Every structure is written in structure tokens, then in C-alpha cells.
Please model this.
Amino acid sequence: MIFREVEDRDLVAKARRGDVEAFNLLVSRWEKRVFNYLLRLARNREDALDLSQEVFLKAYQNLGKIEDAGRFGSWLFRIAHNEAFSLLRKRKPEADAPEAEIDARPRHSFPIELSLAVENALARLAADQREAVILKIYQGFKFEEMAEVLSCPVSTVKSRLYTALDLLKDTLAPIQTRGVQ
Amino acid sequence: MTCSPYDPKDFLFGELSAAQGREIEEHLQSCPECREEFERLRLTQTALHSLREEEPPRRIAFVSDRVFEPRWWSKLWQSGPRLGFASAAMLAAAILIHGFARPVSIGPPPPDTAAIEARIGAEVARRIEPAVRAAVAESEARQARKTEELVAAARKNFELQRDADHVAIAETLTLLQKKYMVQVASADWGTRP
Model:
């Protein structure tokens, strides 16, 4: 992570000086994580892809505004958060959101039943709780970084995550007790 | 709710110090309920990891790709119309500001109509008298010319008439003279034997 930060800082500095390839490298490095974050939040591949493109476009346009180039990841996810919630607000009410796409591809060593159950359980969470789970479980952010991305205190981040975890624990309990673990 | 000294979720996410971690571990070993609760959390976390990261269906465009170029409407906006729009906006703003910020009583005082009327009257009087005088003189001259013409014409007619009368009188005298001569001659012839 330290190496990545050092390299990100270096790439951001080069991109700011007009080095296009340096920014292309940042895109290559972060596109998968940003896409998956947006996919779990928006629950639609095309939306996630369009939003990802928009995120990197805005990042490029606002590269001069980043205060700490070493925290490029948090800054990038802050843009992604804004873009995602802008879309989710347009989609309101949440009940009207398009049905989550169900990917029937095999999930490595996990049974398809568990993967579908997890997708459904995540879809039933409130958007801010789902986002907290995505940032912590799937993106591996620290609580301080999450607070930076979400622009709220660490205590709020923890509260959202722990509430979501309790809900997921209860929702997924029947699946787990059927021995899929 | 658990009787654990710390939140098992903090332990799950590595938020406790080493000493706190050891303390909760000892508690979990001695408390079946808390151990079960922690186990369910761990299983939930494992279940969540069953969703794998996906590759984006197509790569995100690079800066060198066309998507990072300004769009057609953006280019258009950057060109003439933006200048036109900006100019129109500035003009509108200037008109508005002028309308709202114009001082109430800046400008010349209202004109003194009585003074103006007096000045106009004096000017008219100054100019009208010579004009009337000139017009009267011109009219008098015209009348004098006409009178002279009439007098000349009358004189000429009189002279013509007088000449004609002279001729007529002369002819009449000649005729009377001839008649007298005839009568005289006739009388002479009557008295002769």
C-alpha cells in the first residue's frame, strides 16, 4: 500500500505536468476497483461503466485541485461516491430501481446459491449502509479513509457498517446454517 | 447484545489494540454466546467475500482517447456562441445595473417656461417689425409701379383719342367748308339773271 501511494503520488505529479501516459497508468491501476465499487452500489453494469468513465474524466479535469497526491485513492473514491449518489438520487425512490442484475457465472469456489443470497442481501440494504460494506469489505479502506471518502465522522462510518453487518448476518444466517460455509 | 468487554465487530476489523485483542479473545473462549455471535459475524464476512471482483466489460478510456476530448457542443460553446452569449449577458447586466443604479435627480433642472416664452416673444418682436416694414415697402413699390403703368397707359390712350379727335374735327371742318362753298356757289347761280 505504501509503494502504491508513493507511485500514485509520482504519477499524479507527472500527470499534473501534462504527462498523459502517467494518468493513463492511474486509470489502469484504479479502474477495476472503481468499477466494482460502482457496480455494487448502482447494481447495473452499464451504469457502473458509464459512471466509471465519468469519474476518471472528472478526476483528470480536477487533478490540479487534489491537496495530497498520496491520497489519490480516497480522492478518486470521493468523486465516485458523488457520481454514484447523484445517480441514485435520480433513481429515487429506491424501490423503483431496476432489478439487480443477477450474474449466473460460476463464483469460483463459492456456490451460486451463496453468491445470489449475498447480492440480494446487499441490495436490501440502504444505499449508505451498502456503500460502507463495499468500502470496507470489498475495497479494504481504513475507517479514516472511509470517513474521507464519505465526508463524515469515523463514528458515523462505523455505525453504518456495523448496522449493515448485523442486518446481513440475520439475512444470511439461513443460508449459512444450510452448510454452505 | 453480548457481554464482551469490546464490540466483537471492532475485533473482527482489527480496530482493537493488541492488549484489547488478547482480552476479548480470552472472553470469547470462556463465553459460548459471545463466541457464537463472533462466529456468525466471521461467517457473514466470509459469505460477503463470495462476491468476486469483476473485470470491467470494456476498459475505461484513456486521456488520449476521444472520450476525453471536448464534445461537439462543448467545442461549439468554446467558440463564437459563447462570446455572443457572454456579450449579450454582459449587455443585459449593464442595462439592469443602469436601471437600478441610476441616480434619481441627476441632470439639468426643469426649464423656466415663462422666461423662454418672454425670450421667444422678444425675438419674434425683434424680427417681425423689419419683416413687416420690408413687406409693406415692397407692396407700396409694387402699387406705385402698377399706378405708373396705368397712368402711362391712360395718357397714351388720351393722346391717341385726342389725335383721333383732331383728325375727326379737321375732317368735319373740311366737310363743312365744302358744304358752305357749295351753298355759296348755289346762291350765286340763283341771283344771276
Q: What stands out?
A: Residues 99 and 105 of chain B are 14 Å apart (CA to CA). The interface with chain A takes residues 7, 9, 13, 15, 40-41, 43-64, 67-68 of chain B (CB under 8 Å). The helical segments of chain B are 8-12, 18-30, 32-48, 72-78, 80-101, 113-191. The longest helix of chain B spans residues 113-191.
